[in-house]
Amino acid sequence: MDIRTTVSESPRSDSDVAAILANPGFGIHFTDHMFTVEWTPDGGWHEARITPYGPLTLDPATAVLHYAQEIFEGMKAYRHADGSVWTFRPEENARRMVRSSRRLAFPVLEPDDFVQAVDALVTVDQRWVPADAAGEKSLYVRPFMLATEAFLGVRPSQHVTFMVIASPAGAYFKGGVKPVTLWLTTEYTRAGRGGMGAAKTGGNYASSLVAQQEATGQGCDQVVFLDAQEGRYVEELGGMNMYFVFADGHVVTPETGTILEGITRSAIIDLAGKMGHRVEERKISVDEWRDGVASGEITEVFACGTAAVVTPVGRLLWDGGETKSPTGEEGGPLTMRIRRELVDIQYGRAEDSFGWLHRVV
Ligand SMILES: Cc1ncc(COP(=O)(O)O)c(C=O)c1O
What we know:
The structure is a single chain. By secondary structure, the chain is of the alpha+beta class. The strands form two sheets. Strands 1, 2, 3, 4, 5, 6, 7, 8 and 18 form a nine-stranded mixed sheet that branches. Strands 9, 10, 11, 12, 13, 14, 15, 16 and 17 form a nine-stranded mixed sheet that branches. The longest helix is centred in the middle third of the chain and has 16 residues. It binds pyridoxal-5'-phosphate. The site of pyridoxal-5'-phosphate has 12 residues, from helix 6.
């Protein structure tokens, strides 16, 4: 892609950026620029550009506003101690976006173009990548694709826009990693057979909100979804995949098909394998979870995703019951070891033996 860059004439001052990076929160502040490329049937992908960050002007009939033809990705750029800036397996995000685009009837943006777009934006806005490895700060990068044809007919949009924006992110856990309490929803599901569960599309998150509200109302941190067909098998959280550690050392993660195939999940399959743990991708029922924790056969439960890396899971609550927490306040030993190993690779403190890191700056 040929990317035309128009540098902002009114970027945030260095002192403003420093103040934001001192306490970035999540998804609140945005960098000075954004990347855009557009697609039409005749022109293919064209007009790749980096421009000052700013609002979009959309016709009220724009298809995405009505039929939710939209997909996105989530990834981070990390600053290493020597000042260099890296992303983690960006080609995996690119490939997942290709899979999402097929499911949502979008044109395909080639993975190389996706990675080039992310690199270009992170390079232009590199001063927004926090230098605070110990605090686990990063620059969150949000690539997304939307149906931008102004047309109310229900069919794939003939005008598509792919954009990348970026937002500095603070550590997910403030004051140390703590197990989360989960709510098991028996009323709502996030994905059915043939549905969109494996795609990273806004509709899945819209449909999870009421279930997350229910979880919060029950005093829980996050919601867990079960399969839609039988209501027995654990799928994932609203924004994280799940892992179960067994007493004999093997680990289980729900199989794919209706879940979002996380890049962290896939890294953990490799990492746990390298640490000598057998990894099974299979169905795991909520009964096996409850009974396994009760009997001591399941010794650790954790969730994983780009935002939190790895989160220990404590109690699971549902309407009329609960499991006990498999771990104490610190999270289980394998959970915390995998977490540390991943974070150390991301911040350049451990050897990247899988070749997961991609240098941007
Ligand atoms: C529904 C869902 N599952 C799992 C994940 C974890 O995926 P990743 O490890 O690629 O962040 C996410 C996060 O993006 C998610 O939204």
